[in-house]
From TrEMBL:
GO molecular function term, any single one: oxidoreductase activity, acting on paired donors, with incorporation or reduction of molecular oxygen, NAD(P)H as one donor, and incorporation of one atom of oxygen
Spans annotated as Disordered: 611-632
Cofactor: FAD
UniProt lineage: Bacteria, Bacillati, Actinomycetota, Actinomycetes, Micromonosporales
Ranges of biased composition (kind: Basic and acidic residues): 616-632
SUPFAM superfamilies: Dimeric alpha+beta barrel (SSF54909), FAD/NAD(P)-binding domain (SSF51905)
PROSITE patterns per UniProt: ABM
Protein name: 2-polyprenyl-6-methoxyphenol hydroxylase
InterPro entries the record matches: ABM_dom (IPR007138), Dimeric_a/b-barrel (IPR011008), FAD-bd (IPR002938), FAD/NAD-bd_sf (IPR036188), RIFMO-like (IPR050641)
Species assigned in the record: Micromonospora chersina
Domain ABM: 2-93
Keywords, ordered alphabetically: FAD, Flavoprotein
Signal peptide: none
Length: 759
C-alpha cells in the first residue's frame, strides 16, 4: 500500500473554499482504480492547515493518478486558495516496507469533544518531552473533519529507534503521561519512504500477483449489518476484515430511513447514538388516509420508551458506523469483490478481486455474508428461499422532494385508494431532515412496466428503466394527497421492485448470512435495515467467543435458532402490511412496540432458561429471552449520582445481577460472593457480577462483587425479585437466565451452554 500526504495552508479566509474544493473532487479520486483512501485532514493546531491523504494499491495506481486529469484538476482548484507551496513536507510512503532509513508513524486516537481542552493542555508538554528522545525528529497533530478522531503523525530516523522506544514500558509515563488516558485505544501504522518517490508506471503483465492475507473473520458487505458485525468484533479485540464491492459508499437516500428504538439502544452501546440523533430527525407519529379520509392518527412519542423513532438516511447510518469502526482500527476495503470461497474444518479460504484488478486470497476462521439482496455469499452457499422468492407484481418509484401542504411535522403519512374494497393506489411520505422535505414512495407510472416488454423486472432498483420525473411525483400527489399539494425540487428518484422471502438456513459450517442476504421483505415498517442490525448484534458476540475458543459447541447454532423465526415473522408481517390501512390490529401501541423490536424475545431458544420456585412470583417480570429493561435509581458508594442498570450491563461481556433483600442472612451473602468468584473462573472472566440490595437490607462486608442499592425499589418492581434471586444478562441485552431463589448449580449448568469451551 502506497500513501501520499500533501500539506498546504489556506490563504486567509479561504478555509471554507478549500473544503468545498475538496468536496467537488474527492468522489472522482475515490472512483479511480487502485484508490484505497482519500481524505482531507485538518491541522489540529493551525485552522488554516490541511493535509490531503491518498492511499493506493501500488505505485502503478499512484502513477496513473498523478499523470491523469483528476490530479491536475485538484491542483487547479487548490492553487488560488492556498499559499505558495514550499518543498514537499512528506515523501511517498509505503506501509509495511523495509529498511533502516527514515520512518513515519501514524497513531490514530479518539479525543472526545468534552475532553478536547484537556488533550490540548497536555499535548504541547508531550511534544516538548519527545524532543529529547534519540531518533525522534518531529510530528504533526491532525484531525478528521467532523470527527473526534485525531492522528499524531511522527517522523523518526529509523524503525529500529522507534521500536526501541515503544518497547520500553516506561515511555508511556515518562513522555506521554499528560495524554496517556487518550492512548488506551489507538491504531498504529508504520510507513517507510519509497526510495524513488513512487508513482511511476510499472510494467504489468496482466493480473497482479496474488496476495495472501489472514484474519479471524471476513465480513462481506459494508452496509449497516456488516459494519455492525465488524464493530462488535473489533470491540472484542477480534481481527476482522471488511470488503465491499462498491468503490465508494452510497451518497443518496435510496434505502432505509427509519431507525427503530431498539437499534438506538444498540447504538448507545456502540457509542454512536449522539451522532445519529444529531444527523437525523425524529419521526413523531403516523397518519393514514383512505380515499382522502383520515382513518387514524397515532403519536409515536410514547412514555417509557428509551428513544423515539429516528429518521436517518442509510448513507448517514453507514457513514457513522464506518467512522466508529475506524476508531477501532478497521477500515472497509472498497472495490473488493468476493469471487468464491471454500471451507474446511478449520476455516474459510476466499478469493477476492480488488479495485486494481488484482486478486487476494483471504484465509479466515469464519465468513459472514452481509452483502445484501443480491448476495454472492448466499449464491455460493446454494441457499434457497423457503417457498420461493415472492415478488410484488407492481413497480414502485421513490423520490426525494419538497412537499408544500398543511400536514403535521415529523409524521409518516400513508395515503391509500380503494375501489370495491381493493387497494389500487398508495402513497407513502416519510419526512427527511430539511424544511418540507420528504421521501415519497408510490406506484410507478405504467410506462415503466411497458419498458420491460412485459417481462419480469428484477428485484431492487432498476437504473436501466430511467428515473421518474417531478411530473410523475406530482401526478401521484394529485391522485392521492390532499387537494392543492405541490411538489418541487426533485433531488433524486428511482424505480424499484419489491421481493420477499427468507432463506432455508442462516448458517452453513463456518459461513453465516445476515440481513438482506438472509431475508427480503417490503419496506412497510422500515424493517430491513433494523432487522439486519439485530441479526448482526445477535451473531457477533457469539462469534467473538468462538474465535477465542470460549464458546460451547452449540453456541453458534443458536444464531439461526434465535434469528430465523424472527425473520419469518417480520417477513410475513411486512407482506401483510404492505397494502393495508394498518387497522387490522386493535392494539396500535403494541403493534408499534413490536415494529420497534421492543417486544423481541428469544423465549423459545434452547440458550435461555430459569429455575423459579414460585412461577407466579415472576409472572410479570422479564422472561428468559426477553429484552432486559433498563431501570434507574441505583446507588453505588463513591458515586454522587444514581446509576442506570444499563451502566452495569454496558460492555462486551455477560452481566450477572444478584439480588438480596433484608431476609437474606450473612451466610447467604457469603455464598453469593463465592458463586460470583466461581462463575468468573468458569467463564474465563467473561461475566461481570453485581449485588443489588433492597433499601432495607444490611450491606455485607464483601470485597467482591461490587454492591449497589436499589434505593427506590425500581429494580425489584420491574424484575419482580424477593428474598434472593438472579438475572444473567447477555451481551446483546437479553435475559439469558433467571432464578429465584439463587440456585448455584442451575446457573453453572446454564453457563455450560454458552461457555463450554472456557478454561
Amino acid at each position: 500500500m502506497i500513501r501520499t500526504m500533501l500539506r498546504m495552508r489556506a490563504r486567509q479566509g479561504c478555509e471554507p473554499a478549500v473544503r468545498s474544493a475538496w468536496g467537488t473532487i474527492a468522489g472522482r479520486i475515490g472512483g479511480l482504480p487502485g484508490n484505497l483512501r482519500h481524505e482531507l485532514l485538518l491541522d489540529a493546531l493551525d485552522p488554516r492547515g490541511f493535509v490531503v491523504v491518498t492511499e493506493w494499491a501500488d505505485e502503478a495506481a499512484l502513477g496513473a493518478y498523478r499523470e491523469g486529469p483528476v490530479a491536475a484538476r485538484l491542483a487547479e482548484l487548490f492553487r488560488p486558495l492556498t499559499e505558495p507551496a514550499g518543498p514537499a513536507d512528506y515523501p511517498v510512503l509505503r506501509e509495511d516496507g523495509t529498511g533502516d532509513s527514515t520512518v513515519y508513524v501514524d497513531v490514530e486516537l479518539t479525543v472526545p469533544a468534552p475532553r478536547l481542552a484537556e488533550f490540548h493542555r497536555g499535548y504541547p508538554e508531550v511534544r516538548a518531552r519527545m524532543a529529547g528522545i534519540p531518533g525522534y525528529r518531529r510530528e504533526q497533530l491532525l484531525r478528521e473533519p467532523g470527527s473526534d478522531v485525531h492522528h499524531i503523525f511522527a517522523e523518526w530516523n529509523s524503525a529500529a529507534e522507534f521500536l526501541r522506544w515503544i518497547a520500553d514500558p516506561a515511555h508511556a509515563s515518562a513522555q506521554a503521561g499528560p495524554i496517556a488516558p487518550f492512548l488506551l485505544d489507538i491504531r498504529r501504522r508504520l510507513f517507510h519512504v519509497v526510495p524513488d518517490g513512487g508513482g511511476r508506471r510499472q510494467p504489468t503483465t496482466g493480473r497482479e500477483a496474488d496476495v495472501h492475507r489472514e484474519t479471524d473473520v471476513l465480513v462481506v458487505g459494508a452496509g449497516p449489518a456488516g459494519l455492525t458485525v465488524a464493530v462488535e468484533l473489533a470491540r472484542r479485540g477480534i481481527d476482522c476484515r471488511v470488503i465491499d464491492k462498491l468503490a465508494t459508499p452510497a451518497g443518496q437516500a435510496d434505502k432505509a430511513i427509519g431507525v427503530h428504538c431498539r437499534t438506538m439502544e444498540i447504538w448507545e452501546e456502540q457509542g454512536v447514538v449522539r451522532e445519529a440523533m444529531d444527523a437525523g430527525i425524529w419521526l413523531t407519529g403516523n397518519m393514514v388516509f383512505v380515499n382522502g379520509v383520515e382513518t387514524h392518527r397515532m403519536s409515536w412519542e410514547l412514555p417509557g420508551l428509551p428513544y423515539a423513532h429516528l429518521g436517518l438516511p442509510q448513507y448517514e447510518t453507514e457513514r457513522i458506523l464506518t467512522a466508529r469502526l475506524a476508531t477501532l482500527g478497521v477500515r472497509p476495503q472498497r472495490g473488493a469483490e468476493l469471487v468464491d470461497f471454500t471451507q474446511d474444518d478449520d476455516g474459510v479460504t476466499a478469493t477476492v478481486t480488488t479495485a486494481d484488478g488484482g486478486t487476494e486470497t483471504v484465509r479466515a476462521r469464519y465468513l459472514v455474508g452481509c452483502d445484501g439482496a443480491h448476495s454472492r455469499v448466499r449464491e455460493l452457499l446454494g441457499l434457497t428461499f423457503t417457498g420461493g422468492l415472492g415478488r410484488f407484481p407492481q413497480l414502485f418509484m421513490l423520490g426525494d422532494v419538497d412537499v408544500d401542504w398543511d400536514m403535521p411535522d415529523g409524521h409518516l403519512l400513508r395515503f391509500l385508494h380503494e375501489t370495491d374494497g381493493r387497494m389500487d393506489g398508495m402513497l407513502v411520505c416519510v419526512p427527511l431532515r430539511g424544511e418540507r422535505r420528504y421521501r415519497i414512495a408510490t406506484l410507478a407510472p405504467p410506462r415503466f412496466f411497458a419498458q420491460t416488454g412485459g417481462q419480469d423486472a428484477p428485484p431492487g432498483f432498476s437504473a436501466e428503466l430511467g428515473s421518474p420525473t417531478l411530473a410523475d411525483v406530482q401526478a401521484a400527489l394529485d391522485h392521492l394527497a390532499p387537494p392543492g399539494t405541490r411538489a418541487s425540487n426533485l433531488r433524486w428518484s428511482s424505480v424499484f421492485r419489491i421481493s420477499h422471502g427468507i432463506v432455508d438456513r442462516y448458517r452453513d459450517g463456518r459461513v453465516f448470512v445476515v440481513g438482506d442476504a438472509a431475508h427480503l421483505h417490503p419496506p412497510a415498517g422500515g424493517q430491513g435495515m433494523n432487522t439486519g442490525i439485530q441479526d448482526a448484534w445477535n451473531l457477533a458476540w457469539k462469534l467473538g467467543l468462538a474465535v477465542r475458543g470460549l464458546a460451547a459447541p452449540g453456541l453458534l447454532d443458536s444464531y439461526e435458532t434465535e434469528r430465523r423465526p424472527e425473520g419469518e415473522e417480520i417477513v410475513g408481517r411486512a407482506v401483510r402490511m404492505a397494502f393495508t390501512d394498518e387497522l387490522d390490529r386493535e392494539d396500535l401501541k403494541r403493534q408499534f412496540l413490536q415494529e420497534m423490536s421492543m417486544l423481541l424475545s428469544y423465549a423459545g431458544s434452547p440458550l435461555v432458561g430459569e429455575t423459579v420456585s414460585d412461577p407466579d412470583a415472576l409472572r410479570d417480570a422479564p422472561r428468559p429471552g426477553d429484552r432486559a429493561p433498563d431501570v434507574d435509581g441505583l446507588l453505588r458508594r463513591g458515586v454522587g449520582h444514581p446509576l442506570r442498570l444499563r451502566d452495569l450491563t454496558r460492555g462486551t461481556r455477560h452481566t450477572l445481577l444478584l439480588y438480596a433483600d433484608e431476609s437474606a442472612d450473612e451466610a447467604a451473602l457469603r455464598a453469593i460472593a463465592e458463586l460470583c468468584a466461581d462463575v468468573r473462573r468458569q467463564t474465563a472472566e467473561e461475566v461481570d457480577a453485581y449485588l443489588l440490595l433492597s433499601p432495607d437490607a444490611a450491606e455485607p462486608r464483601l470485597l467482591a462483587p461490587p454492591v449497589l442499592r436499589d434505593a427506590d425499589g425500581r429494580f425489584r418492581a420491574v424484575y419482580g425479585v424477593t428474598g434472593t434471586g438472579l438475572y444473567l444478562i447477555r451481551p446483546d441485552g437479553h435475559v439469558g437466565f433467571r432464578g429465584q431463589p439463587v440456585d448455584p448449580d442451575a446457573l453453572r449448568k446454564h453457563l455450560r451452554l454458552v461457555f463450554g469451551g472456557a478454561r
